[in-house]
Design a protein that fits this description.
By secondary structure, this protein is mostly helical. The protein is built from 13 helices and 5 strands. It has a 3-stranded parallel sheet with strand order 1-2-3, sandwiched between helices. Bound molecules: adenosine monophosphate and tryptophan.
Length: 334
C-alpha cells in the first residue's frame, strides 16, 4: 500500500538531537521510499500559541526548511510548506473544534505542562493546539504520522476527532484515521542535564541539548558536562531503569549508530563514562557536523528556501482546499 505521510515541526528555533532522532531521521527514511507520498509542514500557526518575536519567527521558518534539507529530506520528492500559507488548516481547525469535546482536550498532558500553574493565562490557541494538529493531518488523508513519543496523545485525539466527524455526519471513512509512527526505541530523547526530563527547545540551559547547528567543540563540551552517575556502565538493560542519564546517553549512541540498546550495552559493559563519552562525542560530531555545516550554508540561501516553500504551498494548497471543500459540503455550508 502507498503510504501518505504527514508530519509537522514547529519553527521555534534550536532544532535539536531529540527532534532529529525522534522525528526527522524517520522522515528521511520514509522519504527515501518511492512508494510514500510525504508532506512535511513547518507549523508556524502552532508556534504562535506561545509568544514569538516576528523577525525570529521568519528566520526560524526558513531555518526549519534548511534543517529538513540538510538532514536529507529531498524537496523534489516531498511537499515542504509552511502551515499559515495554506488557509485550509485554520478553517478546518475551526470546524473540527466543533466536533472535538472539551473533555478530550482537558486530558492533554502537553497543555498542562506548557500552561504551567496559571492556566488562566495560557492562550486559547495553546489549549486548542491539538485540534489544529488534527486538521493538518486529516486534510491530507494521511495514513501515517511519524512523530516522537510526546505527540502520541495528540494523535489519539486526532483519531477520535476523525471518527466522531465520520459518525456525526454519516460519512464512513471520509476522514482517514491515521496511524502514528513512533519508533519503538529511542522515541524520547532526554535532557543532558536531567535524564527524567525531555530534551527541549524551551529549556533555559543550552547545555541540556545538542542543537543541530552546534560546532564540534560545543558538542564535545556538552557531552563532557552531561550528567552521569558514579557507577560503571551496566551489563544489562534492567539496571538502566533506575539510571535515567546512563539510559539516555546509551540510547543516543545506539540510535545514531542504528544499534539496539543491547548491542551498545554489550560494547560498553563495565567501562566507565569517560571512555563511553569520548566515543559518543565522536559519533555525534560525525553525524551532526555535516548537518550543521549544511544548515549554515542553506541559511544564506533565502531565495532557494523560499522557492521550496512556494512550490510546496502550491501543491499543499490544491490538495487541502479540495478536501476542505468536501468538508463544507458535508457540514452543510452553501
Ligand atoms: P517540535 O519541535 O515540538 O515541533 O517537535 C518536532 C518533532 O520532534 C515531533 O515529532 C516531536 O515528537 C519530536 N521531538 C521533540 N522533542 C523530542 C525529544 N526530546 N525526543 C524525541 N522526539 C522529540
Ligand atoms: N505538535 C507537533 C509537535 O509539537 C507538531 C505538529 C503540528 C505535528 N501538526 C502536526 C506533528 C501534524 C505531526 C502531524 O511536535
Amino acid at each position: 500500500m502507498n503510504k501518505k505521510i504527514f508530519s509537522g515541526v514547529q519553527p521555534t528555533g534550536n532544532l535539536h538531537l531529540g527532534n532529529y532522532l525522534g522525528a526527522i531521521k524517520n522522515f528521511v527514511e520514509l522519504n527515501k521510499d518511492e512508494n510514500n507520498n510525504c508532506v512535511f509542514c513547518v507549523v508556524d500557526l502552532h508556534a504562535i500559541t506561545v509568544k514569538q518575536d516576528p523577525k525570529e519567527l521568519r528566520d526560524n521558518i526558513r531555518e526549519t526548511v534548511a534543517t529538513f534539507v540538510a538532514c536529507g529530506i529531498n524537496p523534489e520528492k516531498s511537499i515542504i510548506f509552511n502551515q499559515s500559507a495554506v488557509p485550509a488548516h485554520s478553517e478546518a481547525a475551526w470546524i473540527l473544534s466543533c466536533v472535538a469535546r472539551m473533555g478530550w482536550l482537558n486530558r492533554m498532558t502537553q497543555f498542562k505542562e506548557k500552561a504551567g500553574k496559571d492556566k488562566e493565562k495560557a492562550s486559547i490557541g495553546l489549549y486548542s493546539y491539538p485540534v489544529l494538529m488534527a486538521a493538518d493531518i486529516l486534510l491530507y488523508d494521511a495514513t501515517h504520522v511519524p512523530v516522537g513519543e510526546d505527540q502520541k496523545q495528540h494523535l489519539e485525539l486526532c483519531r477520535d476527532i476523525a471518527q466522531k466527524f465520520n459518525n456525526d455526519y454519516s460519512v464512513e471513512d471520509f476522514l482517514k484515521v491515521p496511524d502514528p509512527l513512533i519508533q519503538k526505541e529511542f522515541s524520547r530523547i532526554m535532557s543532558l542535564k536531567d535524564g527524567t526530563k525531555k530534551m527541549s527547545k524551551s529549556e533555559l540551559s543550552d547545555l541540556s541539548r545538542i542543537n543541530l547547528t552546534d560546532s564540534e567543540d560545543l558538542i564535545v563540551n556538552k557531552i563532557k558536562k552531561a550528567k552521569t552517575d558514579p557507577l560503571p556502565l551496566p551489563s544489562d538493560s534492567k539496571e538502566l531503569e533506575t539510571r535515567p542519564e546512563a539510559k539516555n546517553l546509551l540510547g543516543i549512541y545506539s540510535s545514531l549508530n542504528n544499534f539496539t540498546l543491547d548491542q551498545t550495552i554489550n560494547e560498553f559493559s563495565g567501562k566507565n563514562f569517560s571512555e563511553f563519552k569520548e566515543k559518543l562525542s565522536q559519533v555525534l560530531v560525525e553525524k551532526i557536523n555535516p548537518v550543521a555545516n549544511e544548515i549554515k550554508k542553506l541559511n544564506k540561501e533565502n531565495e532557494y528556501l523560499d522557492k521550496i516553500l512556494l512550490d510546496g504551498q502550491k501543491k499543499a494548497n490544491e490538495y487541502a482546499s479540495n478536501k476542505l471543500k468536501k468538508i463544507h459540503e458535508i457540514v452543510g455550508f452553501l
